[in-house]
Amino acid sequence: MAQASICFLARDELYETTRPYAIQYEPHGDVPQTNVKQEMVNNIPIRNLRPFKDTLKLEKDGIVVRDLNTQMTYEKFADPVAVQDTYLPKVRELLRDVLETQNVAILEYLVRRRNASFPFSPGTEYEFAQPVPNAHVDFSPKGISDIVIDRYGEEKGRQLLQHHHKIVNVWKPLFGPLLDWPLVFCRLSSVLPEDIELMDNVFPNVVEESISIHYSPGQDWCYLDRQMDTEVIIFQGGDSDLGNSGGVPHCSFQDRRNADDVRPRESIEVRALAFYADEKLDLDRLVHSRLHGPKSTYAQEALRAQIEM
After folding, report:
1. Domain residue limits at 76
2. Which one of 48, 78, 117, 249 is most buried, counting C-beta atoms within 10 A?
3. Average pLDDT of 5-24?
4. Helix, strand or coil, per DSSP, at residue 171
5. Which tops the pLDDT comparison, 47 or 303?
6. How many structural domains does the chain have?
């Protein structure tokens, strides 16, 4: 069984009165970049999903694994037109089947290519988004509502939010088998309410509300060993029926059973909304691509400190 070192939000009395935050740009004056206090937990057992992947349920586990064969070669994932015209329609078709609704909207996608120096900084900004080593959920329920309203406008967004809705991620490596910094997930049924902490990610023009995770021994962390590029992991980022408990905590971990010189991870993640309604909804909008995800400086610092010990 694999073991992982994972960065969690420390349980600190500060968060009884103050929400954790991270400013995703250079702040002015004496404002601290973040008030996040990290706790590195070592030797967490990570179960391999592969032996029981066919029994996973989105409602209970928050994760499912599916095969997805497309016409996309490795090289084509560097071409936004190929991703938009070939890959994303296949993802949408798969999600309609898995989520059992025709009302699926692709929001955005992100390609990550790990820099060989990660988690150490190369001294300049990374060209591509890097793995995220801290346990988190991308959006809180409010964060999801903000996305819907931003995408569809106040009036239509509010109407859509009246329906039961979910946000999901579809994740896969660009080559396989993946040995470097795979994604690891905490099964929904093993997350306690007290493990969840709302957090603000502050950008120049917007504040995105996400969820940071505290560690508890009963958490069930798993990953898909040696994931192939034809296998996608669909994991739930939020469910309007479940409040703050609807998103799957996740992050990346360094599997130290593998050699240091394995091929650096390259992956693509697609984020999508699903609405449950009797009628077909008008959800088509432009799909965004991102080169960079939110910075995770505080998590990288904790990880670097652990490596250097």
Report:
1. 2-308
2. 249
3. 96
4. strand
5. 47
6. 1
Q: Would you say residue 298 has pLDDT above 70?
A: no
DSSP letters for 205-220: S-EEEEEEE---TT--
What is the C-alpha to C-alpha distance for residues 233 and 136, in angstroms, rounded to an integer?
A: 17
Q: Could you tell me where the DSSP H helices lie in the chain?
A: 58-61, 80-82, 88-99, 141-152, 154-160, 297-308
Tell me: the pLDDT tens digits for 53-82?
999 999 999 999 999 999 899 999 999 999
CATH number of the domain bearing residue 234: 2.60.120
Task: Give pLDDT tens digits for 215-260.
Answer: 999 999 999 999 999 999 999 999 999 999 999 999 999 988 887 7
CA-to-CA distance for 243 and 110, rounded, in angstroms? 26
SS3 231: strand
Which residue is associated with the tokens 């917007």?
A: 206
**Phi, psi torsion values for 89, nearest 5 degrees:** -60, -35
Token pair 């034809």 is at which residue? 230
